[in-house]
Amino acid sequence: MKAIRRFSVRPVLPEPLRPLSELARNLRWSWHPETRELFQAVDPEGWRAAAGDPLRLLGSVPAARLAALADDRRFRRRLAAAADDLQDYLTGRRWYQEQPEGLPAAIAYFSPEFGITAALPQYSGGLGILAGDHLKSASDLGVPLIGVGLLYRHGYFRQSLSREGWQQEHYPLLDPNELPLTMLREPDGNPSRVSLALPGGRSLRAYIWQARVGRVPLLLLDSDVEENGPGEREVTDRLYGGGGEHRLLQEMLLGIGGVRAVRTYCRLTGHPEPEVFHTNEGHAGFLGLERIRELVDGGLDFDAALECARAGAVFTTHTPVPAGIDRFDRELVARHFGAAGELPGIDVERVLELGLETYPGGEPNLFNMAVMGLRLAQRANGVSTLHGQVSRQMFAGLWPGFDAEEVPIDSVTNGVHAPTWVAPEVMRLGARRVGAGRAEDALAVGGSPRWDAVADIPDADIWELRRTLREQLVEEVRERLRAAWRERGAGTAELGWIDGVLDPGVLTIGFARRVPSYKRLTLMLRDRDRLMDLLLHPERPVQIVVAGKAHPADDSGKRLVQELVRFADDPRVRRRLVFLPDYGMAMAQRLYPGCDVWLNNPLRPLEACGTSGMKAALNGCLNLSVLDGWWDEWYEPDFGWAIPTADGAAMDDNRRDDLEAAALYDLLERRVAPRFYDRTQSGLPGRWIEMVRRTLTTLGPKVLAGRMVREYVERLYAPAAEAQRALTPAAASELAAWKARVRAGWPGVAVDHVEAVADTALNGTATLGSTVCLRVSVTLGPLDPADVEVQAVAGRVDPADRLSQTATFPLKPAGGPALDGRRLYEGPLTLDRTGPFGYTVRILPSHRLLSSGAEMGLVTLPSEATGEAAGVLLR
């Protein structure tokens, strides 16, 4: 029989155990070993059955056991210490509180997914895990963040395999009352709600649930509200589900509803209102429209409100490919805004112009969420140095006339939250060497460029730690593999071979990620005979653990999974290569520490960052990767290996994959495996251990999310807050009017003549340190000198006379306008480098409230004739 109604029955904890409820409801337990150990002590068997979820555990502990614990003085002391520690963590001064005044009072951080813990399954992959690590690190640092997302009733899908190895999806129903969430309520006890207007007089209503991530509140919007129509109730059904209007409504609820949820939360709790709004990928881009609507309702016109909203906004792009961006048909977006839908006080054409791809190479009838995010944020960044370069090229059309390197998209390389991803055994070893407090501070807060204390750990201790972690992984793999085969229909009698899967003494390689084609899950299968030789080598065998999910709508990705699973099913190799279905946080926390090598072989430069290798590195795992994402900027041969990239315009896909797979096999066969199995007289792989040590000392401090969040605070949040405060209503109106005047007058701006006078005769050559005096005649049309900056841009030139490695030098006005209205600018240009050298001049808008000269996308360069007349090109 099936139940007709489901609800949760909560246990009544004895008074001495009441602090357990507070500890269970603050997700700090997910990265605080002492709190997890406390819950494990409540009921070790129940803890395993609850998969490490304190709320599930407390819901299943027998009353007799609770009564016994209430009388256990030792347990009560542990409980009191844990409760006091949490209170100190929540209220004490941390890194942020020790910084100089002027930092934002609060920051709102919007993301479509958050990977905090497996007990709150609201994530699909790297974007969500990164968002969860961002919140946790902000909490550790004391950064006053408010997280904003959606509560998906089915989360992301659970993955299993058919007997034939085909991916199957399952969507378990999640009950918010059984999750570590609390519904936000009004003073009268009624649930707080936000509401969006939809076409046809309909409404989209949503409850606001709160998760406590240490010091950081995470607000999750839930459209499963009785007053909603059936379609509206399903808006938050599943992560990245549906398409078209369904996705648009999700993103409207996240952005517009999310701002309204933040306002409600601040009203009810007294939390400071955010000064900075951070959009993590374009899905939440509509938040900027809601902030404009608030300002328009407060009396500003649209243009002034736009400037004000942009000043305090930060946009982070995570995708290096246009296909990874949500784009909607113009008419669909238009139907949901304006008089018949949401934001009725704003002209729908003004809404559309913020997102339409009205630039060379764009699709003018498509509304691009990343484009809107960039147009609505004064500050933007990619998530690694290489990804920043790719993003500047990808979005260069929004800033015509500027070289890609000048596009105002910065980069902050991602990091990972070490207390979440570092195995307890690694933490304990660090605590023994430097003390628990220093170890915790080094992992959570960071700041030290090196972890030199690791150098003092004996080789034997490091190797014993690595073997222990490998043994734990082997046990975990066997358990998961047995469960997976049972789901595939195998009987117990068929599964005896699983007891021999993997060997704790064999070099273990990990590969786990989403399965889009560019991540190349099956590159390792390119030459199956050669792979089999590596797996079964009589003296230096390797073993590989693979996991990953393909998107439910991606049949090509599912075929890749099936191809790998079928190879792994081969009785000849199945003890050396395994595929584990249902990759998630719980699996990852065992997989990263237990591997000796972390493999990553995407198509360069399509991996924005690739943080899985960072998590592995923090556990002493070495990286073997294509030079993409974070590995491109931090790789050193002292602590890993780089897979060569076969690029070039004439390279076809098959040839490229053949070459890169061969390079991978060569590295494994000739360098990686020999180093692992090369033992000293004491039986230790000394050179391998030294690479582990270098990974921890040099790479470890760089990959921390604490370092990442500090960079966001110092380089993005603080300047955004300063810009927001400067944009008073009067200043915003003045800036908007100035921009309108400059845009209208810009067609009349021109570089008329460039003249160079050198301190010696040039004749096409010059000596280092000599000076060229530039005199530039310009026409400013209706603009004033105060509206512009005239610059010289100098640098190296390539054979096509393109400038690179440039530096800019402002030129100054020389007197008033001539009779014909032209103005003369001049200034010195010092020849500060040898080799091919060249320059040009340009005119940019200039205003104290612009974040950069490229902000408006306006630039005037010399015409071809003017440039040739000026022409000084030094070789």
From TrEMBL:
The modification N6-(pyridoxal phosphate)lysine is found at residue 615. InterPro entries: Agluc_phsphrylas (IPR011834), Glyco_trans_35 (IPR000811), Glycogen/Maltodextrin_Phosph (IPR052182), Glycogen_phosphorylase_DUF3417 (IPR024517), Pyridoxal_P_attach_site (IPR035090). GO terms for biological process: carbohydrate metabolic process. Its EC number is 2.4.1.1. Its cofactor is pyridoxal 5'-phosphate. One of its GO terms (molecular function) is glycogen phosphorylase activity. Signal peptide: none annotated. It catalyses: [(1->4)-alpha-D-glucosyl](n) + phosphate = [(1->4)-alpha-D-glucosyl](n-1) + alpha-D-glucose 1-phosphate. The keyword Glycosyltransferase applies. It comes from the Bacteria. The keyword Transmembrane helix does not apply. SUPFAM superfamilies: UDP-Glycosyltransferase/glycogen phosphorylase (SSF53756). Keywords: Allosteric enzyme, Carbohydrate metabolism, Glycosyltransferase, Pyridoxal phosphate, Transferase. Residues 13-120 form the DUF3417 domain. Phosphorylase is an important allosteric enzyme in carbohydrate metabolism. Enzymes from different sources differ in their regulatory mechanisms and in their natural substrates. However, all known phosphorylases share catalytic and structural properties. Belongs to the glycogen phosphorylase family. This is glycogen phosphorylase. The gene is glgP.
